[in-house]
Design goal:
Elements: E1 6-15, E2 18-28, E3 33-37, H1 44-52, E4 59-64, H2 69-75, E5 78-81, H3 95-101, H4 104-107, H5 115-127, H6 143-156, E6 161-165, H7 173-188, E7 192-196, H8 203-206, E8 209-214, E9 216-221, H9 223-226, H10 229-236
Parallel strand pairs: 3-7, 3-8, 5-6, 6-7
Antiparallel strand pairs: 1-2, 1-4, 8-9
Bound molecules: adenosine-5'-triphosphate and magnesium ion (MG).
Adenosine-5'-triphosphate binds at residues 15, 18, 20, 38, 40-46, 83.
Length: 247
């Protein structure tokens, strides 16, 4: 049997004194869309960064398709849409430049794009409906367009594992629907998607499975089970769906 798309085993991460992940363990199989939910500070972004190899776990291990994050990043097989707060939007890059970055691994040391690279960028931009914004500086985009730019980068690089950190934050319903549909299409083509969100109501339409995070994985199962009020209470400590009684 082939290795799981994402395997996180007993990962603990500290930032100085702060314990951000505490023995997080999870496995996601190929072709799945997995929603990641948890309160602010529960370690979602840290989990993405640990999977990407951007923060080094104190203990534990991460494997993507059975390989280390560093190795998989070199091949371009893993794509990452960072949380908006983690991006320098003033950086002088156009939409096309960002998407072209997804091709760097395939370009060789000179980083001179060839016809195939330009074609991949054009096709990815079309897929996320940003063709007409290709020359726009990335800071001069709406929230939804910014997210779609990074999704296009993942598509252009041919990523089979996609990590999206809050792609729906500051995004209108139409962009949310476009991104949700795109993620489903990519999963149907065999990609594995891990996507964090605070939109609990949208979770069943978005994801095949969901993870409830609170420094560790509290629960991993069908979205409907994860959304049970008693499970949400564990992760959020209150009646987040607004349908229970107060204490
Ligand atoms: N670079 C950093 N230095 C120090 N502490 C950090 C750093 N990044 C995150 N933390 C802390 O680690 C914990 C987990 O943060 P993380 O960003 O992973 O949470 P999150 O679930 O993504 O939150 P949010 O929903 O607000 O995006 C928090 O307590 C946070 O303050
Ligand atoms: Mg975060």
């Amino acid at each position: 049997m082939s290795a799981a798309a994402i395997r996180v085993d007993d990962v603990t991460v500290h930032y100085g004194e702060v314990l951000a992940l505490d023995g997080a363990t999870l496995t996601i199989e190929h072709g799945r869309v997995c929603g990641l939910v948890g309160m602010n500070g529960s370690g979602k972004s840290t989990l993405f960064k640990a999977i990407m190899g951007m923060v080094r776990p104190d203990t534990g291990s991460v494997l993507i398709n059975g390989h280390s994050p560093a190795k998989v990043r070199k091949t371009g097989a893993v794509g990452y849409v960072p949380q908006s707060e983690d991006v320098d939007w003033a950086f002088p890059l156009s939409v096309r430049d960002v998407v072209l970055m997804g091709r760097y691994g395939k370009m060789g040391p000179t980083r001179r794009p060839r016809a195939a690279d330009h074609a991949a960028v054009a096709s990815a931009l079309e897929r996320v409906e940003l063709t007409e914004y290709a020359d726009r500086q990335i800071g001069q985009l709406s929230g939804g367009q910014k997210k779609r730019t990074f999704v296009a980068r993942g598509i252009a690089q041919g990523a089979t594992t996609l990590l999206l950190d809050e792609p729906f934050a500051g995004v209108d319903k139409r962009s949310e629907a476009t991104i949700t549909r795109l993620l489903r299409e990519l999963a149907d083509e065999g990609a594995t998607v891990l996507v964090s969100t605070h939109d609990l109501h949208a979770l069943p339409a978005l994801a095949d499975e969901a993870i409830l995070l609170m420094r560790r994985v509290l629960m991993h199962g069908p979205p409907a089970d994860v959304l049970q009020p008693e499970n949400l209470a564990l992760a959020f400590g209150l009646d987040v769906l607004g349908r229970g009684e107060s204490a």
